[in-house]
Amino acid sequence: MAAPIVTLFHAPHTRSSGTLRLLEEMGVPYRLQVLDLKKGEQRAAAHLAVNPMGKVPAIRVGDTVVTESGAIALFLGDLFPESGMCPGPSDPLRGALLRWLFFYGNCVEPAALDRALKREAAPASMAGYGTYEDVVATLVGQLKAGPWVLGERFTVVDGLWGPALSWLVQFGLLPAEPEIAGYVERFGARPAAARVAAIDAELAAKQAAG
Known about the structure:
Layout: E1 6-10, H1 16-26, E2 30-34, H2 45-48, E3 58-61, E4 64-67, H3 69-79, H4 94-116, H5 132-143, H6 156-170, H7 178-188, H8 191-208
Parallel strand pairs: 1-2
Antiparallel strand pairs: 1-3, 3-4
């Protein structure tokens, strides 16, 4: 039976580049549905039918549409178990996989956004992420075991975290602690990084050319 083909709704140099990187890491068949954000194609009716938020990434596999980067990572990992990048329900690492997939969206991103916008932090008892310092310390503690988020095994969690941490460190939204900086460097050195950079550069050049 032929492997399912994933359609990725993608705009170069955006969050969907992380999903593109994950697809490259997994080595699964995919096609790109490229959107030009400068032309507002993400707000056109055709894309709003896929994601009413007018955002990327989104994927379609058959009749199934998935949005949100963490959900996409988990869906793809379970859809392509042969990639070896997603511990299954009976794997002892499954609990950690779920924890760290959700920790990014529930804690890291809101904490970093609040810090970036200089918003007054909510009391730790009310904020889902506790405090910014809690988030950074928890992240650093997890990455100490390395080289990847779950230890020796490169998983779909890294497909989510690698691009995100690279971006957050680049823009100063997370401190370049040795554990974080080392992780970003290792992630950027993987062969898929160059492939995705080349794909995005070509797509961006075509869009700039009109």
